[in-house]
Amino acid sequence: MEPISDHLQEHLRILFVGYNPSIRSGETGHHYANPNNRFYRILFQAGLTPRLYKPQEDGDLLKLGYGFTNIVARPSLTAAEITPEEYREGRLILKQKIQAFRPCVACFVGKGVYEQYSGLRGMNWGSQQDPLVEGVIDYVCPSSSGLVRMKLEEMVAIYSGIKTYIEMELGY
After folding, report:
1. DSSP 61
2. How far apart are CA 39 and CA 53, in angstroms?
3. Which residues, other chains included, contact 84 with Cβ-Cβ below 8 Å and sequence gap of 6+?
4. How far apart, in whole angstroms, are the C-alpha atoms of residue 100 and residue 97?
5. Is the pTM above the cut of 0.90?
6. I need a labelling partner for 140 at 20 to 30 A (CA). Which of 18, 51, 66, 111 fits?
7. CA–CA separation, 77 vs 22, rounded Å?
8. Alpha carbon 141 to chain centroid distance?
């Protein structure tokens, strides 16, 4: 199965960084396409999108200043299938993307994604004190996968912090 395309451009407000595409995303070519994934519902309920988007509209989110990439490009059933070698390579490629496109916020959709990227452990949700790319805010949110057992309301509250942060800190 082929990797799905990133949605990247300069001057993004938020670059959402996932583990890797699901099998469903690989089949459809769209980010967060598994019907059990709550990503688009979370964005809408957190006030980050004006309406509920569908996975096949992921490219439309570029108009809002939101981009998509993953730390590993290969689709798989679960993140547990990602190899250490894939993470090592993905970490370097991801940092290059963030340096090249310089989003205001790099939102890591899962603590494990940020752990793999940064090499750090035990971080809290939200903005991280020492971003890996100067001038880009590293923001950690829960994975929106249906496999995650966190309540939707808790996830929405954490994602809502991105909107508050962008409005208060960055003046958007």
Report:
1. G
2. 10
3. none
4. 5
5. yes
6. 51
7. 6
8. 8
d(CA 134, CA 139): 13
For residues 25 and 70, the answer to whether their CB atoms sit within 8 Å is: no
Closest CA to 73 of 93, 46, 53, 59: 93
Show the domains of the chain with their CATH numbers: 14-169 (3.40.470.10)
- What is the rounded average pLDDT of the residues 99-128? 96
Residue 49 · residue 40 · CB < 8 Å: yes
Count Cβ atoms below 10 Å from residue 71 Cβ, excluding itself: 26
DSSP single-letter state for residue 71: S
DSSP state of 7: B
Mean pLDDT on 46-67? 97
Tens of pLDDT, residue by residue over 140-172, are 999 999 888 899 999 999 999 998 877 776 666
Residue 155 is predicted with a pLDDT of 97
* Half-sphere exposure for 12 (CA within 13 Å, toward CB): 29
Distance CA 39, CA 137 (A): 20
In the sheet with 14-18, reading across from the earlier edge strand, the strands are: 66-70, 14-18, 105-109, 137-141, 126-127
- Residue whose C-alpha is closest to residue 143's, from 46, 13, 18: 18
